[in-house]
Amino acid sequence: RSASGNATGSLVLTRHAGEEVMIGDEVKVEVGEIRSQTIRLRITAPRLISVHRSEIFEAIHRAASNRAEGD
């Protein structure tokens, strides 16, 4: 379970370029281009949903935590 008490898990999918995966009713992830070790994803989501690479997401949360500790 996650910190919010919701069940969590992993789903591994095989997709080809041009194929899509839906997350809920509003988030669509499309495999755009595949080159060697790099995959381009197109993510379509409502503007209210933040979409970040994990390293950016972690940096945002570290900065917010540091600001909170400084208050």
Characterise the protein shown here.
Helix content is 24%, strand content 28%. The chain starts with 19 loop residues before the first strand and ends with a helix. It is an alpha+beta fold and 71 residues long. It has one helix at residues 54-70, and strands spanning 20-23, 27-35, 38-44. The chain has a three-stranded antiparallel beta sheet with strand order 1-2-3, with no helix packed on it. Strand 2 (27-35) and strand 3 form a beta hairpin.
Secondary structure elements and pairings:
Elements lengths: L19 E4 L3 E9 L2 E7 L9 H17 L1
> How many alpha or pi helices?
1
Stretches with pLDDT under 50, minimum 5 residues: none
Largest sheet: 3 strands, antiparallel
Query: Biggest sheet: strands side by side, in what order?
Result: 1-2-3
What helical percentage do the residues reach? 10-25%
Rg from Cα: 16 Å
Q: Which whole number gives the mean pLDDT?
A: 90
Q: What structural category characterises the helix and strand content? A: alpha+beta
- DSSP strand content: 25-35%
How far apart the termini lie comes to: 31 Å
Please tally the β strands and state the result.
Answer: 3
Any idea what the shape is? Answer: extended
SSE succession: EEEH
